[in-house]
Amino acid sequence: MNHKMNNGWPYDHVEHWPPMTYRNREPPTSQILSDFANFLKNDGSSDQNKELQPWIPFCEGRCAFCYFAVSCDKQNVVSYIAALKKALALYSENNYVKSSVFTELYVGGGSPSVISNEQIADVLSFCREKFNLRADHLTKFTACTNSLSENKITALYSNNVNQLDIGIQTFNDSLRKTLMIRDGSRDAKNKLKLIKKKGLRVSIDLLYNLPGQTLEQWQDDITQALELEVESVDCYPLDLYPETPLAKKIATGELPPVGDDSTELDMYVEAYRIFKENGYEPTCHNRFSRVKEDFNKPSSEVVGTGAGFFMGHIDRFLYSDIEDIQGYISKVKEGSFPIARLNKISKEEEMRKAMMLIYIRVPVDRENFRANYGKFPEEAFPNAINKLKSKGLIEEKDGKIQLTEKGDPWRFNISWEFFKNA
Ligand code: SF4
């Protein structure tokens, strides 16, 4: 993306990611792996929300922009699911996980909807049997519309799946072709209607600032999402990764370039306006939602596994798994955690991370912060807090520090402020 300094902007570039994503993590040393294994012997009971994430990295075809570690070779599905269950059992057998209660089961990937109804039922019942999922736990399942037959939607519903998370990306057929999405907009929309008719909630992903996309096309995508009465929409600015077919076609001039930061920002601000006007509130990283659970306190821990899984978070350990499916299967066969990267963050880093709640639109309670870290946020991060307050990007209200409406488009930039010499 072109970087263009605009008068009145608090930063000269809109960040897309916060600090501490999995790409910044290290491969594990034997010491940290053994610290991790020892830690899991502790008691894990707490009153915090925890999430369980089995990961199924298969897709029917690769979308042109996709940078996830996914496989389109379904020959491996049977051996992969066997390995996944074994890896899940490695976690569930530990005291920490045994004594943990999970409020959400989230099946991610990939497009896990490509596996069979029997395999879906098998993975879900395995998780519910091996882990303490609270009786009222939510089950969310990632899916793509072209792998969702009526029969599969019925199977998901009868396996107590509450919500499907679907990568729609755009309803514009020409842009869908550019993105190499495998079904047309009319079919995709019919599937969304069917899912809702069957009683499931629908959350979709939309991408903006696509090559050649106009503001009107983007407004049209949002309008169609609203007409379909989806429960929530995650709006992501396109991130171009050089190895993807999309980036290559842009580099050779076969496709037009993506818009600059100013175009991207205008699209975000427009989405913010339209969603708010229609009763959807911003929440989480990139979501506009009208579902009350989306405004609950976020999960404090994510226990999960699978090839390419990257959200692992247990106490101060952050981990992600081996991406290659065969490599993942082999590691699990050895009886070892299939972890590729593992960090144990320090108390200081944990404190910085606690401030990052601001960017997911959760206010930071000053008194709780002091109870945990021995000082108020403004004592721990005087420069960052002063700077952000004076620019009107954050504010203090009822003893809590929170994002302002002006700060909302800059929330990722704001999260980085607490990782500088703050
Ligand atoms: S369906 Fe999702 S995970 Fe699969 S290739 Fe497309 S973008 Fe990637």
What report would you give on this structure?
- This protein is α/β, with parallel strands linked by helices and 422 residues long.
- Helices cover 37% and strands 20% of the residues.
- The protein has two domains: 323 residues, Aldolase class I (TIM Barrel); 71 residues, Arc Repressor Mutant, subunit A (Orthogonal Bundle), CATH 1.10.10.
- The protein has 16 helices and 15 strands.
- The strands form three sheets. Strands 7-8-6-5-4-3-2-1-9 form a nine-stranded mixed sheet.
- A hairpin with a 2-residue loop joins strand 14 and strand 15.
- The structure holds iron/sulfur cluster (SF4).
- Iron/sulfur cluster binds next to loops.
State the gist of this model:
The protein has 422 residues and is an alpha/beta fold. The protein contains 16 helices and 15 strands.
Describe the structure using short key phrases.
422 residues, alpha/beta, TIM Barrel, Arc Repressor Mutant, subunit A, nine-stranded mixed sheet, three-stranded antiparallel sheet, 16 helices, 37% helix, binds iron/sulfur cluster
**pLDDT averaged residue by residue:** 95
Major β-sheet strand ordering: 7-8-6-5-4-3-2-1-9
Spell out which ligands are present: iron/sulfur cluster
Count every beta strand, where a strand is a DSSP E run of 2 or more residues: 15
Q: Roughly how many Å is the radius of gyration?
A: 21 Å
Major β-sheet annotation: 9 strands, mixed
**What is the assigned CATH homologous superfamily of the largest domain?**
Aldolase class I
Low-confidence stretches are none
Q: Judging from the principal axes of the Cα atoms, what is the shape? A: globular
User: In percent, how helical is the residue content?
Assistant: 25-40%
Q: How many helices in DSSP terms?
A: 16
Q: Which strand-content bin applies to the residues?
A: 15-25%
